[in-house]
Every structure is written in structure tokens, then in C-alpha cells.
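WARN retry 2 of 3 for item q-0093 after timeout on previous attempt; input resubmitted unchanged.
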Amino acid sequence: MKTLTALLLVLVLVLSLTAVAETKTYVIGATVTPHSEVLELIKDDMAELGYPIEIKIFDDYNLPCAATASGELDANYFAHIPFINGYNASVSESEQVVPVIGVHYEPFGIYSKNCATLEDLPANAKVCIPNDGSNATRALFLLQDAGLIVLPEDAQPTDSLNKTDVVSTVNGLEIFDVDASQTYSTMDDMDIVVINGNYALLNGLNPRDDAIFFEPSEGEAAAIYANYVSVRPEDVESDWVEALRSCLCSEKVYTFMIENEAYAGGVIPYFEIEAAEEE
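OK item q-0093 returned
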């Protein structure tokens, strides 16, 4: 009798664990635009594959990687490689995350409420850029490409630069910096502002139509700053991550990004449709 009872208990436990495994929901952290919108597009697809997802929205770049490492999230989708590398360099090995799926690229742009072109900039103009290492570096290189500042000759886009690294500015340009999420809010006080693609889109701006200068999508920036899904090291080769890859790198997502009028050149797929179909 005791043996039968023990066997029944084991059976109940196995069935319970199986049920939990079958109903696991994978939580993915994302910023609102376009990341959460892309994930919403594939929710049903992931569920059909047996890997339902929940989307948790963040408006602070500093939180999703740590939340992924701690287990609060199963993955995050919001950041490019330089940002992820910067985060990993700041934490212990056990807290690091791994970029696994390159999904899209968002061109950085220079925006202004007062200037129609860069030639309209007054003397001693003010510019605001993001203040985190990777995005500050990206903004500074964009300003240099626009002919507004000079950086050290040996500076690289993968460095972690800030405004103190600027060698010289044109016509007395003064540089300010704030959290990336706050750059748009400085537009009334600045002559020009460098804004991340997702925050520009969130506030109704896009580089193609509204920026007075922006990164070319066919240039080096697209390769460096593509946005990735990141996971914990133990999940890199997991079945659910492969399912997520197949859903994200699909013709459905490609078409959504290209034809979405709200994005208007501000969200560019980082994958080829042919490669997606082969998976």
C-alpha cells in the first residue's frame, strides 16, 4: 500500500511539473516603440509554437539587462551591441547577458524646432545628447559627421565617449547631456537635439522626414547599432530562443517594419527575408 501511495505521489508530481513546463510564459522586456509593438505582432505566432510570451515595457535603458540576468525577465529586446557590452563590463560574469538575435536598426537623428538645416545654427548654439556611454559615443560621432565637432583621431564608434572627449566644436557649439529618454523633452531649450530612434518615434518624429541630419542606414552604424534580443547564457541555444528567432526574423515582421507609415524609415530590418524563410 505504501509503495502504491508513493508511486501515485510521484506520478502526481511528474504530471504537475509537466503541466508547469507546458504552460510556461516567457517574459520579454522591451521599450515601447518599436520593440513592444514588434513583439505584440508575434505573440500569437509564439503561442502557436508552444512558447507564449508576456511583454514587460521599460522606459529606462538601465533596467532590462539586469532584470534579465536576475531572472525577472527571460529576455530583453531594446539595445544594440555597444550598450550590451557596456552593461556586461559593469557587472560580474554571473550577471551578464548575451545578444542572440539581431532584429532591426534605428537611425540616430539630429532634430530641431528652430533650425531647418544645420546651416541655420546660430553662434554658440546648444545641443543635447544622451548621457550613457554607448549612445553618447554614437551621438558624438553623428555630430562629427555633421561637421559640428572634432573628436580625437583615434576615437572609435565602439569606445565609451562623453562630451569631455570633444577636441573642438564649430562656432562655439555647447554640448549638454541627459538620460536618453529625456532628450526629446529638451527640444524647447536647445537649438538641436540628438535623439535615439525609438524615443524619436515615440514622440512622433522619424529621421527620414523630421531630422535635419541622420545616420545613413547603409553605413557602418547599421552594423554596429542593430538592436538585439539578449538572454542569459544558459538560454542561448534553447528551443524557445530559436522559436523567437524564427518569429522575429520573418517576412511578417520585415513587411511590418518596412510598410508601417508611423516608422517611415525609422525602423529598418537587420535581417534578410531569404535567411528568415530558410529557418
